[in-house]
Amino acid sequence: MTKSELRLKYKVLRKQISTEEIEEKSLAIANQLIQMDIWNRTYYHIFLPIEEQKEVNTEYILQILAGKDKEIVISKSDFKTISMTHYLLTDNTKIKKNEYSIPEPINGLVVPTEMIDVVFVPLLAYDKQGNRIGYGKGFYDKFLSECKPNVIKIGLSFLNLKF
């Protein structure tokens, strides 16, 4: 199967996940993350989920990050340059959905990419070798290539690839 075919297949599969399942699985993912050896870093980049796409609800992870007093970074996408600008999430950060229903900051303090220590990556699906299927635009491919070499990358998905 090509990446395009896999993308279509897994979008259909994810649409079949119920709201209740999303919450249960999102909480389970957050509980798994607590067990990982990633909490001695400072800057954590996380996505805010596109609810219409039934992405992992990252609210549970945000609560963990806030509870551990970590610096939380979220992004705003530029579809002309296929790039993202990263902002520190604070109590004063205003969030608005863009034309693609992506919740994004409309203001805030810019965080340079090289400061980010851990990146939670939204995935449609993944395999045991760590290969991932995203939405195909390349935002995260470009972003991750700009990160420091030792950045920790953690994909978040409900579905693993089965061939």
Series of H and E elements: HHEHEEEEEEEHE
Query: Helix/strand/pairing class, anyone?
Result: alpha/beta
Helix content: 25-40%
Describe the biggest sheet? 5 strands, mixed
Share in β-strands: 15-25%
Q: Report how far apart the termini are.
A: 8 Å
Q: Given the structure, what is the number of helices? A: 4
Give a description of the structure.
With 163 residues, the chain is an alpha/beta fold. Helices cover 28% and strands 23% of the residues. The protein has a 5-stranded mixed β-sheet with strand order 3-2-1-6-9. A two-stranded antiparallel ribbon has the order 4-5. A two-stranded antiparallel ribbon has the order 7-8. The mean pLDDT is 92.
Primary descriptors:
single chain, 163 residues, alpha/beta, 28% helix
SSE order and pairing:
Blueprint: H1 3-15, H2 19-34, E1 43-45, H3 59-67, E2 71-78, E3 83-88, E4 95-97, E5 103-105, E6 118-122, E7 125-126, E8 132-133, H4 139-146, E9 152-156
Parallel strand pairs: 1-2, 1-6, 6-9
Antiparallel strand pairs: 2-3, 4-5, 7-8
Quick synopsis:
The chain is an alpha/beta fold. Helices cover 28% and strands 23% of the residues. The protein has helices at residues 3-15, 19-34, 59-67, 139-146, and strands spanning 43-45, 71-78, 83-88, 95-97, 103-105, 118-122, 125-126, 132-133, 152-156.
